[in-house]
# Entry
Amino acid sequence: MKKAVFLDRDGTLIEYVLELTSPEQLKILPGAIEGVKKLNDAGFLCVILTNQPIIEKGKITREQGDEINRVLMEKFAAEGATINAAFICPHRFREPQHCTCRKPDQGMVQEAAVKFGIDLSQSWMVGDSLRDVETGKRGGMKTILIEGGEGGKEDEKFFPNAKPDYAVSDMQAAAAKILEFTK
Ligand SMILES: [Mg+2]
Ligand SMILES: [Zn+2]
# Structure
């Protein structure tokens, strides 16, 4: 079985923008490439899990969403950092029932776990919102919150009981924290 670090995208690896519709808007955050490299070296798969309801809302197509992730992964690869896969939930929140892939639901986690043979109990979820923390908790992972994210603030009222195992300032610090537990 492999171990993985599941990574939120917006506000975790790249600067949060309200609607990211073009690869030209991708701005990699300080520490993100270094952090992913450290996780690569320690034998973790790095897998992006991102909710992109702008796809179902019609602002971009599914293909454009995948293309944005492909360009992002290429930018990391050009610096020697490997992101192994990126999963998208393209759906919007809907009452009373929405899809099973939108974080914190487990569809993307389960799909990745099956595809790559991931042991979730040896894995982590890192993100800038309590939605990500809740996602990791539900998957039986340890969780790290990257503090100060703009996109995740509204999540506090939805997930008031989601407490991260650790809170850090950026992706490099998140990787350092994970490596403390994997010596
Ligand atoms: Mg985020
Ligand atoms: Zn979905």
In short: The two ends are 18 Å apart (CA to CA). The longest strand covers residues 44-51.
